[in-house]
């Protein structure tokens, strides 16, 4: 039987004593080394006592708030505590904290954004440094979490920073890793060095706020205070906060604090004893081990309870066994009912984790978490970094795959078979931080297109994204054609590649306004936010054909009529005749009706706010490379 202990681990602080507990089942001698500050060479050592479950424990009297500590393992290795909630700069020592002293004024009382349905979510993925560092951001506290919520910033009269996000209309900001990672120097003087950048998928201390993203990295309480201020700032603007978490691997393998304390326990291995490498990073966390599973769930609950975060995005989620995910979802929803949980349903290499235990497409069915939908992504815009075209660039072979995504990737019919039971289980996206950003992909496949044409492709792709059933997700800067100069893997590229140039918002304000109105339009029409598979099949009906125009057209039954959506990927305009529309409604919804009226709601420029009459005497006409939405009212 596997060892397991449900006791609280780490440094459990009280004003008159602190209890230290760590899991080290194969060790016989562990000492606690206690320091009064982060740099002191003087320390006091205490022998820890081991119990039958492999837990070493010691209780130290006195107020140890802001003391530092390490563990000495078998008189040979000195390591930090995997359960650290704070640390010295650059993760050298763990820190004991009185967490009650880390709350900004009003944090415990502040109101969180109201509960929403998962399909009402609109996710915006961003790296803190990308968002705040460029001179055009005009953010004062650049390269910092607190800079993320700085108000009243602009470039040439165009909003930047959090005001931009409010204006755009997103519901969730997805922060790329803000927990402690290793490959970036945390000293503030290095914050803007071009070679001191990383996305952060190289975890060290999972429960510690990353020092390179705060103003005072050498003050552990202020690190926590800054992140809590940022969360409160987002909440006050009605924006929920999603944390990007990387429990599938650690940056350090055999010399990590996990492995030094419990040799070979926390990592999956092949029969010959070598570490498996499903992550592509040299190791993978063995989430099926009881104490490894406990660590992950304890960590997730800590971020929700202490910081009030609203969701988690799991890196390489396939490597976290489905039982662990199911348990985590259950326990997290008991704390926060509408917590948003999603992740990548793939891995980087082979793993000994049985295929029926991987968290991959299909296993999420009915379990109320979502997976990134790369089928939808590739069908819409083509492959990530190459020259393969998607439907949006004219590849009509991808029509059925795009339609599957439009229907929320449910089992819609035998021609459109998805992987979800409900639309809430799919994260619809066309690019994330990985691979070419959308603008660079379009420029790669269409190097000779005009600027106006490139804009049209961007707008068209986003229209398919935001008018599909499921949860839409965009990467920061997509809304105004951000480019990374063709860099398809900028994880450690200079800030000059990664920092968002906010002048692009002014240059491409037409694209920005279009995407903003797509979000507004989606929010205003619940027909684009369905969830139940039966309801989607009942209300959403695809046209069998559009005369002389191979494109995607469909209707969605709404409260007071029908919405007609046409995605025209052709290089010429498309006419859908009134008779075709009537035949479609008669076949799919009402066998008999007298007549109908058709008005335009959305066109290539965005929401149509004036005259909404149809734009053609014989039917509805959609311009090339564009999406139109019409309102159809039936007279029975």
List low-confidence stretches.
none
Q: What order do the strands of the largest sheet run in, or round the barrel if closed?
A: 10-13-16-17-18-19-22-23
**What proportion of the residues form beta strands (DSSP E)?**
15-25%
Instruction: Give the overall shape, derived from the CA principal axes.
Output: elongated
Q: What class do helices, strands and sheet pairing give?
A: alpha/beta
CATH T-level fold name of the domain at 535-635: Immunoglobulin-like
Structure explained in plain terms:
It is a single chain. The strands form eight sheets. Strands 10-13-16-17-18-19-22-23 form an eight-stranded parallel barrel. The mean pLDDT is about 95. By secondary structure, it is of the alpha/beta class. It has 15 helices and 31 strands. Helix 5 (about 290-305) runs parallel beside helix 6, helix 7 (about 375-380) packs across helix 8 and helix 10 (about 450-465) runs parallel beside helix 13 (about 510-525). Among the domains are: about 10-100, Immunoglobulins (Immunoglobulin-like, Sandwich), CATH 2.60.40.10; about 535-635, Golgi alpha-mannosidase II (Immunoglobulin-like, Sandwich). It is elongated, with a radius of gyration of 26 Å. The longest helix has 18 residues, at about 290-305. Strand 7 and strand 8 form a beta hairpin.
């Amino acid at each position: 039987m596997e060892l397991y202990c449900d006791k609280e681990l780490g440094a459990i602080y009280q004003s008159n004593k602190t209890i230290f507990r760590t899991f080290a089942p194969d060790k016989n001698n562990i000492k606690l080394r206690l320091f009064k500050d982060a740099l002191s060479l003087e320390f006091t050592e205490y022998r820890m006592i081991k119990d039958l479950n492999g837990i070493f424990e010691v209780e130290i009297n006195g107020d140890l708030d802001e003391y530092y500590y390490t563990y000495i393992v078998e008189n040979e290795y000195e390591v930090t505590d995997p359960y650290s909630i704070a640390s010295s700069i650059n993760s050298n020592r763990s820190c004991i904290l009185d967490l009650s002293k880390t709350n900004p004024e009003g944090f415990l009382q502040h109101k969180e954004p109201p509960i929403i349905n998962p399909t009402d979510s609109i996710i915006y993925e961003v790296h803190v440094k990308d968002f705040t560092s460029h001179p055009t951001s005009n953010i004062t506290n650049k390269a910092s979490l607190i800079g993320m919520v700085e108000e009243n910033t602009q470039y040439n009269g165009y909003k930047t920073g959090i005001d931009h996000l409010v204006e755009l209309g997103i519901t969730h900001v997805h922060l790329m890793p803000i927990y402690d990672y290793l490959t970036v120097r945390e000293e503030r003087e290095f914050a803007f060095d071009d070679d001191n950048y990383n996305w952060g998928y190289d975890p060290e201390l999972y429960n510690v706020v990353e020092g390179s993203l705060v103003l005072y990295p050498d003050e552990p309480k202020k690190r926590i205070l800054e992140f809590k201020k940022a969360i409160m700032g987002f909440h006050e603007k009605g924006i929920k906060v999603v944390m990007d978490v990387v429990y599938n691997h650690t940056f350090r393998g055999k010399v990590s604090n996990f492995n030094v304390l419990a040799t070979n326990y926390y990592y999956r291995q092949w029969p010959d004893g070598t570490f498996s490498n499903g992550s592509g990073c040299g190791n993978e966390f063995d989430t099926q081990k009881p104490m490894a599973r406990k660590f992950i769930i304890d960590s997730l609950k800590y971020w929700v309870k202490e910081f009030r975060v609203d969701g988690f995005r799991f890196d390489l989620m396939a490597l976290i066994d489905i039982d662990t995910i199911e348990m985590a979802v259950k326990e997290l929803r008991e704390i926060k009912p509408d917590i948003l949980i999603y992740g990548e349903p793939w891995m980087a290499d082979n793993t000994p984790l049985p295929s029926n235990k991987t968290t991959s497409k299909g296993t999420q069915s009915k379990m109320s978490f979502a997976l990134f939908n790369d089928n939808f992504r590739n069908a819409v815009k083509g492959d990530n970094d190459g020259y393969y075209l998607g439907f949006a660039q004219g590849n009509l072979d991808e029509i059925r795959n795009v339609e599957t995504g439009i229907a929320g990737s449910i089992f819609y019919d035998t021609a459109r078979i998805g992987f979800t039971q409900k639309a809430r289980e799919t994260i619809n996206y066309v690019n994330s931080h990985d691979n070419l950003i959308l603008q660079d992909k379009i420029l790669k496949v269409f190097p000779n297109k005009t600027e106006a044409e490139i804009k049209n492709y961007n707008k068209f792709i986003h229209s398919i994204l935001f008018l599909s059933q499921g949860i839409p997700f965009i990467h920061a800067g997509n809304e105004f054609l951000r480019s990374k100069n063709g860099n398809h893997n900028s994880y450690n590229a200079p800030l000059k590649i990664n920092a968002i140039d906010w002048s692009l918002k002014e240059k491409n304000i037409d694209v920005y306004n279009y995407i903003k109105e797509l979000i507004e339009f989606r929010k205003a029409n619940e027909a684009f936010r369905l969830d139940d598979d039966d309801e989607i099949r009942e209300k959403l009906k695809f046209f069998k054909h559009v005369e002389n125009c191979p494109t995607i057209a469909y209707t969605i039954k709404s409260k007071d009529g029908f919405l007609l959506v046409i995605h025209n990927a052709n290089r010429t305009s498309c006419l859908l005749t009134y008779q075709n529309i009537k035949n479609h409604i008669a076949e799919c919804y009402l066998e008999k009706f007298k007549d109908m009226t058709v008005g335009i709601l959305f066109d290539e420029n965005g929401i149509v706010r004036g005259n909404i009459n149809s734009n053609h005497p014989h039917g509805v006409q959609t311009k090339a490379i564009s999406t139109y939405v019409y309102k159809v009212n039936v007279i029975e």
